[in-house]
From TrEMBL, chain A:
Membrane topology: Multi-pass membrane protein
Leader sequence residues: none
Species of provenance: Pseudoalteromonas peptidolytica F12-50-A1
Keywords tagged on the record: Cell membrane, Membrane, Transmembrane, Transmembrane helix, Transport
Protein name as it appears in the record: Iron(III) transport system permease protein
One of the protein's GO biological processes: transmembrane transport
Gene name of the record: afuB
InterPro entries cross-referenced by the UniProt entry: MetI-like, MetI-like_sf
Automatic annotation (TrEMBL), chain B:
GO cellular component: outer membrane-bounded periplasmic space
Regions annotated as coiled coil: none
Gene designation: afuA
Protein name according to UniProt: Iron(III) transport system substrate-binding protein
Gene Ontology molecular function: metal ion binding
Organism of origin: Pseudoalteromonas peptidolytica F12-50-A1
Family stated for the protein in its record: Belongs to the bacterial solute-binding protein 1 family.
Keyword Ubl conjugation among UniProt keywords: no
Automatic annotation (TrEMBL), chain C:
Protein name from the UniProt record: Iron(III) transport system ATP-binding protein
Keyword Transport annotated: yes
One GO-annotated biological process of the protein: quaternary ammonium group transport
Upper classification of the organism: Bacteria, Pseudomonadati, Pseudomonadota, Gammaproteobacteria, Alteromonadales
Domain of life per record: Bacteria
Keyword tags: ATP-binding, Cell membrane, Ion transport, Iron, Iron transport, Membrane, Nucleotide-binding, Transport
Gene name per UniProt: afuC
GO molecular function annotation: ABC-type ferric iron transporter activity; ATP binding; ATP hydrolysis activity
Gene Ontology CC annotations of this record: membrane
Domain ABC transporter, residue spans: 4-236
Amino acid sequence: MQLSLSLSKWQTFAWLIGLSLSVPLLFLIVESFQPDSEVFAHLWDTVLWDYVSNTIWLIVGVCLVCALIALPLGWLTAYCEFPGRRFFEWSLMLPLAMPTYLIAYVYTDLLDYAGPVQIALREWFGWQSPDDYWFFDIRTLPGAIVMIALVLYPYLFLIFRTALREQSFKLVQASQLMGKSPSQSFFKVSLPLSRGAIVAGLALISMESMADFATVHYFAVSTLTTAVYDTWLGYYSLTAAAKISGIMLLFLFLALTLERLSRPTQVVHERQSSVNSTTLYHLKGTQAWLASGFCWLILAVAFIVPTWVLVDYAINYFEQAWNDSFFLYAWQSLKIAFWVSVVLIIMSMLVVFNQRVSHGKRVAVPGKLASTGYALPGTVLAIAVLIPLTLLDDKLNTWFEGTQFEPGLLFSGTIFALVFAYVVRFYAIAQGAVESSYQRISPSLDMASFSLGRNRLSTMLSIHLPLLRRGILTAALLVFIECMKELPAALLLRPFNYETLATHVFQYVSDEQLELASVSALFIVLVGLIPLYVVNRSMEQRS
Amino acid sequence: MKKALVTLLAALTCLPAVATEEVNIYSFRQPFLIQPILDDFTKQTGIKTNVVFAKKGLIERVKREGRHSRADLVLTSNFSALIQLEDENLTQTISSDTVAKNIPANFRDPEGQWVALTKRVRNVYSSKARTGKLDALTYEALADEQYRGKICTRSGKHPYNLGLVASMIAHHGEAKTKAWLEGVKENLARKPQGNDRAQVKAVKEGLCDLAIGNSYYFGKMMEDEKQKAWADAVYINFPNQKDRGSHINVSGVVLTKHAKNTENALKLIEFMTDNKAQNMYASMNMEYPVKPGVELSKLVASWGEFKEDSLPLSEISKYRPLALKLIDEVKFDL
Amino acid sequence: MHSLVLENLSYRYDGEAVVNNLTLNVEQNEIVCLLGASGCGKTTTLKVIAGLIEPFQGSVSILGKAMNGASGFIPPQKRNIGMMFQDYALFPHLTVAQNVAFGLTIKDKSARESRVAEMLNLVQLQGYAARFPHELSGGQQQRVAIARALAYKPNLLLLDEPFSNIDAQVRFQLINDIRRIIKDQQVSAIFVSHSKEEAFAFADRLAIMDKGKIAQVGDPKTLFQRPKSKMVAEFLGQGIYIPAQRVNGASVETKFGAVHSLVELGNMDAKGEVYLRPQHITLENCAQGSVKILNQRFMGTEYIYRVTVEGQELEVSHPAHEPLDLTKPISLKIKAHAVNFFS
């Protein structure tokens, strides 16, 4: 028997998801219209513009550095044969598992004036004081840009590489046959054809870097995120904080619009056997070594060095850093990351499917609404989640008044709040990945399925789901890793005595004593490697 | 229908477990600091303790949860959080003779809405090699031209620095404090960053000569193998000994307005103000106990006696918002 | 000098020989078709020629210049090869003119433009310079692809199933057009196809491929008249095998009587089989006829009758303008033709 859901029901699902995920934001917006006793005006007069310009520079800088890292890496591993290519295809994704608060901490420790690198330089050259030489200061805006970019570039790498392999492979082959050198083919064919993918990747990266708090706070770079915290926690004005969040939302919509505009007007549907197991360019000699060297460099800087430092901490501080509850923390982290991934996959599938089968101007609205949580910094999101949930709990308790059942904080005081916050925060990632692989499924497959008597639900389950497998896995992977790393929302919304690896690490990081939490920090990184491995395996098997 | 639902839900959930004796704590302080005391409390009384730790947003959470909040106590790491909880009307009176006996009046809210548990001094560290001990140093002198490019501190917006600036306003007024802030900013060796520990490290490495920081960091660094070298490179100085005394900040506790386990919570507060916990709490983090006569840890005692600024915290805290404004106006952190 | 020489070429994929010891020459200005069923290795051969993949062994040389081996591997972009892809591979982000100009190395702007105009003129797409590929019909896209591939005067043109996406009605018109264009431009070409009709219409010579090897090379007529193997004979047209005995160099005896061959029999064996296509057999009304008609298909210019005679089922072609009277007895006769006699 086939389950049947009418079109209007699909739309209802999509709108329900879109609306419920945007509820926190809605409450925040309502909050921002409250009077705020001139805190906002004061900020406007003093530091707000510095914050705005810092934020813009941060986003632009991170995008630029990510592009400089990810585009060459994507191109090299997609089109060139050189020693280690197959290894780099997946290993260059590893930095995704590294939370920014760890990498920032580790590099500050290494490169600070008081860190081993500068001390060694001083001893070597006999310098006495900071006036004797120049060394870049890592705790600056450029420093923050590099740190964030090192962790975020894999987004662009992944998306760009997939576009190169699946969309423009044949065309680059054609270009090559017409006598174009690799670099000419890159600039004339690959780059313009992958524009949509690149912008999509950069949009994700801009939203992530805008919402970053850990790094900019640690590096004392004042951005809008720090401004939100300052006004809320310093001026005790959630209203002014909500207003600043409003400015950030403007950036978010800008990013989303740019992404939409840059989508190619003509969608290239995946043809069978378009994924080729061969490469285009055989690099030899110096070129091959340069390519390998570049990949190694990025991998080392973004992953090997920080992991090594963590291992070093863990060895030196093992007795203080070991904790019998690690497996419990790791289990709780894994469990919540897993469930959030599952929920998000289902939600994004429903929304994107509705976009595919429904018509009209507003089909994209639910997806956009649901994506708005992405640009909110974790703590702000946590509060935005708390507002409606506590309200709901209150209503619930009133309703049950007089009965022997007292629900208490059924929504806001349980793990539900945490899952909801994660879902709101990371929905955009899931939708992005599912949507882009959906576009590669030719619409004629849908018609074939409908004409063979299948209804929409059955088409989605038996046709789309298998074809989307890779996209879904990618989405799940990204969400999973983000959940493992996510901190501020987890800290604030968790129930009593609930620890994840990230919250455990944070209590030490917050005291600048990462050494004492190095073992759990390593756990976060290692656990993040599991989904990377699984997804990579499944991709290999396909091609 | 409602009744059926109620039975069903009551059967399904074991959520509001009433049976166990427990006390629920929202803590701004890291678990590793308070857990030993809580464990001791459980051992003695059989009352279970449940903790949520966060550095930010807990007050908002208590506020939003309202009458259903399960939090009985909020442990804070500075006095402005205590005052804010009181201002937001999230507290209830701690009526306990034990507490009143243990804690001097200037470390309790006049209305009994909060109690301080430990105190710490806003010290100035000076380089042994380049500056020497500065017994006559004042906070005011930090703006002097002789320290141009020689001072390190953390963000001006951190509660510890805000407290100091608020106390400056309380003593000198807004205009003078602003000028002082500008002077200090002028003297900074680098943009404010890191925590207090990182400032001492910077002095050791020669980046700056003076660092503003809380006393307890010094103690904790002494205990750490690697960081001892940094601490050994500086003297700890108590400013303004010749006049009003050094600025102090406190950590404390409030009993929430909608506490469900009031009795247990009061027991815990009383426990924390008693000799043993006071000693443990203070020495765990190298702070000063609030209860008079409680023994200091050896290390803390070795720093010597000092004079405290006696202006009540509730007075100082009035100027906190203004302090924040001034920090923004002089762009202290930028 | 040969335009292209392939010697003992082999390519393996997953340990399996896809191309196996293949040797082939292409003369200047000649169009050669690699003809074969899918999976016979023809497209792989094309890729090896283009340099998109490196052969496992053997050599490729274009205009006498070695493309691999001792002197090193020449990458595709240095081979000066033109290629037409099955799906044309037009750049969707470039206009027709930009696509055609893509491979040009001429720096001078007006010279470039005039070459593009010349090419568009050649493929009769003068007014389409500013259009984008997705605004064109399939046939037009195809003509842009050929213009693009020829614009920079390649030494060799490779065509990978270029006509398979074109409607049957215009296909042969297009094949003629493109053949004319290639001949005009005096380029040698290798053409990969699985359709013998396309191959006959387009190529000067056919190389029939089977299992990574070339089964036979020659012009269509030779292949038809003297197939070296049953595989070649079968590939060129459907038919049946009838046991036969050699009488002399020009005739064989079958159960339907003697059959005269228009060419000398290739096989010296006394016993064997002849391969009969429907066109080699005729039917006529005849009183002693014992042929039973099973069904008939009208094909426009001819009928195909499916018949059985003496326990043998076979198909016979019959001109449409002189229909048989099916109510009367019918007999069968085998025409004199170039007999394919196999042992």
